[in-house]
Design goal:
single chain; 220 residues; alpha/beta; TIM Barrel; nine-stranded mixed sheet; binds S-adenosylmethionine; binds the ligand Nc1nc2[nH]cc(C(=O)O)c2c(=O)[nH]1; binds iron/sulfur cluster; binds magnesium ion; 4Fe-4S; metal-binding; 7-CO-7-deazaguanine_synth-like
């Protein structure tokens, strides 16, 4: 049975806004962001702590209406940790059914298997410097498809060396695109760029474009 069949689904919504996609291989695309409230993790460098609580409960159909009002093709569902809300699966399916190009930003701590296959899943692998390495769900690696992406956000050189080991051990670059990103304001981006080139790592360097454009502004 379709997960979207229950149109009575309600979700706790932190914010919804239009911006330029600042992360993933979709960087630069005008996108509607649907940010769901709540996260069971506490990455020490999290830039979205305001989404841990608050927001408003909304019906799925209302969220679809809000998304439509922006008149954009791309939608990114994020949080908080979007998969922590049961209704997220129905939201993702309904967005795909409505014809949007949909991406999901997820921590990698929850099961990505039931996500609609039309969704591009951007899955974090939490490095030790996040304080949440223990939450990585190993089974998720086996579920990755070519259209998905793995993102590792690095706080320091120890995190980089950890990422390099993970990429080799799990042949991550053969499964899907692998993105390495510095923790904003913590790891000097040029240092990470140098390490990647030095080691000929088969990854994509990523900077959060929205922070270049708008610093830490909320709703951007
Ligand atoms: C706010 S999280 C929401 C989605 C999900 N909870 C997750 O962690 O993937 C969105 C993305 O922002 C990244 N992020 C959060 N804080 C960051 C920071 N200070 N510097 C760089 N990336 C950061 C996360 O690693 C994640 O890839
Ligand atoms: N512009 C912009 N792009 C983003 N891509 C992923 C984001 C997120 O918070 O998950 C994000 C965000 O917060 N802003
Ligand atoms: S999992 Fe995502 S939202 Fe949750 S604390 Fe980590 S970066 Fe922030
Ligand atoms: Mg963000």
């Amino acid at each position: 049975m379709s997960v979207a069949s229950g149109r009575g689904t309600r979700l706790r919504l932190s914010e919804i806004f239009a911006s330029i996609q600042g992360e993933s291989t979709r960087v630069g695309l005008p996108t509607v962001f649907v940010r769901l409230t709540g996260c069971p993790l506490r990455c020490v460098w999290c830039d979205t702590e305001y989404a841990f609580s608050g927001g408003e409960t909304r019906a799925l159909d209302d969220i679809l209406g809000m998304v439509a009002s922006f008149g954009l093709r791309h939608v990114c569902v994020t949080g908080g940790e979007p998969l922590a809300q049961k209704g997220c699966l129905a939201l993702l399916e309904a967005l795909c059914d409505a014809g949007y190009s949909v991406s999901l930003e997820t921590s990698g701590a929850l099961d990505i298997a039931p996500v609609d296959p039309r969704v591009a899943r951007i899955v974090d692998l939490k490095a030790p410097g996040s304080g949440e390495e223990g939450r990585n769900r190993g089974e998720n690696i086996g579920h990755l498809r070519a259209g998905d992406e793995i993102k590792i956000v690095l706080a320091d050189e120890a995190d980089y060396l950890w990422a390099r080991t993970q990429i080799a051990a799990h042949r991550l670059a053969e499964r899907c695109e692998v993105l390495l990103s510095p923790v904003a304001g913590r790891l000097v981006p040029a240092e990470l760029a140098e390490w990647i080139v030095r080691d000929r790592l088969p990854v994509r360097f990523q900077l959060q474009l929205h922070k270049v454009l708008w610093a830490d502004a909320r709703g951007r």
